[in-house]
Amino acid sequence: MNKTIYIFYPIIALLFCSSCSSKQKDAKSYLSAAREFYQSGNYESAKLQIDSIKIKFPKAFDEIKEGHMLMQQIRTSENQRNIAYCDSMLQVTNAAIEKAMLAFSLQKDPQYQEIGNYIPKLTPSTQLFTRNTLRSGVSEDGKIYLESIVVGQNIGHRQVRASLSDGIYAETLPVTSDGLNYSFNTIEGRYEIVKYTGKDENGVSNFISVYKNEPITIQCIGRKTISFSLSKNEKEAISQSCELSSLLLERERLKMEKEKSETLLRYLQEKAGEE
């Protein structure tokens, strides 16, 4: 019986060593695959292979360590690639902004305004108070706004609705904030102006831009409701504002994305220098 035990123990040891060797080989194959994915620029697949080593082979310490070093290289390359992409897209976006700006005039009083507004040239200020209208503008930081102007009537409007002939419509939220809605009287008559920004604008400008080739009716809603049709120039001006806003916001997004990658890259380089 003792002889059987002596024979049995070496067999177990041999099987254990064989199992460890097999697992180590499997871990190396995952690491090798990760390197191949990294070299081909498939960073997500490379990271999945490295994560699999830690999960499936928790005792493959050498491979886990090498995987960690490779992961740092992957993250460095990812951020370098993202910075290059952002730089490329910023060039394209800046060129598009420069072209779009030709249709706008900047209104800004440096004494009172930190941020000015781009106003479409299709809606000159000299025509603002001659009839009911809906005009648009874009702040320098890319935020679009609408302004409804009612001439010669006292309806106390706080909201507008843009409608198509088939009943489809979009409407702003009611504006009650002081400074965003106001009315005044002059010798020529009475005027009401309401400004819709942020969530209050509620996508109305985009609705008008999408359907700019169709007849659009604007309703100014208050104690009473009045209606008027948007002219071709008014619709085109709002569409231009939507495009400029989108471009300016995209430029800010790209700048933030690049800055984030640059910060992460500096961190990885500092960490690599410490190791």
Give me a quick take on this structure.
With 275 residues, the protein is an alpha+beta fold. Helix content is 53%, strand content 20%.
Main attributes of the structure:
275 residues, alpha+beta, disordered N terminus, 2 domains, Immunoglobulin-like, 6 helices, 4-stranded antiparallel sheet, 6-stranded antiparallel sheet, 53% helix
Describe the structure.
This protein has 275 residues and is of the alpha+beta class. It folds into two domains: 97 residues, no CATH class; 152 residues, Immunoglobulin-like. It is built from six helices and ten strands; from the N terminus they run αααββββββββααββα. The strands form two sheets. A six-stranded antiparallel β-sheet has the order 1-2-3-4-8-7. Helix 1 packs antiparallel against helix 2 and helix 2 packs antiparallel against helix 3. It starts with a helix and ends with a helix.
